[in-house]
Amino acid sequence: VTGVQTCALPISDLDTAVLLVDADLRARRVQHLFGLDGEAGLVEHLTQGTPLPELLVNPGVERLVLLPAGHLQVQHTAELLAARTLQHLVQELKTRYADRVVVVDLPPLLDTADALAFLPQVDSTLLVTEASRTTLADVERCTELLAPFPLMGTVLAPTGEAPRRGRRWWRR
Question: Which residues, listed in sequence order, are joined to residue 156 by a DSSP beta bridge?
């Protein structure tokens, strides 16, 4: 959720329309943040062919449109995010909604293969780290994994959770 607060919402404040895609098909944090639990979304589009316009939601934030993760549970999320259907969706988002910045919220890079399955589809990547959770080793590993992809930068987002074991990288 901190990625959404750090990226998509401030962009929508700059008089730029934002299309926010919740592609964290396991946790569905963005969908939950906006109170859209149970709504159809990305999963229904990819697995059942539900038309995209039927799935887009204005969550009550000006210049922000959301594509929820969906309500169907799927087993193999990385495979779904690497499927040809998703490739077509990304092309549609880029052409049909060319007047908007498309922000895709993915699960944590080190937790699943989902983000790496999706990253070949994007134009650029922003690594969002959590202040009290991300260690220097985590950042180094993420940097290695993101090396083949265009990385626009890294954001240090605050979090209210207790630090994980390991050295916190912002206090080197």
Answer: 129
CA torsion angle for 59, 64, 70, 71 (degrees, to 10)? -10
The two most distant CA atoms of the chain are separated, in Å, by 49
Helix, strand, coil % in the chain, rounded to nearest 5: 40, 20, 45
Predicted confidence at residue 14, as pLDDT, reads 56
**Strand pairing partners for 57?**
66
Contact 63/19 with Cβ under 8 angstroms?
no
| HSE toward the beta carbon, residue 156, CA cutoff 13 A | 11
Predicted confidence (pLDDT) per residue in 38-58, tens digit: 999 999 999 999 999 999 999
Read off φ and ψ for residue 100, nearest 5 degrees.
Answer: -120, 155
Q: Per the structure block, which two tokens stand in for 143? A: 């940097």
Helix (H, G, I), strand (E, B) or coil at 100: strand
Listed in sequence order, the residues at least 6 apart from 31 whose beta carbon sits closer than 8 Å to its beta carbon are: 22, 37, 39, 41, 66, 68, 69, 70
The tens digit of pLDDT for each residue in 30-39 reads 899 889 999 9
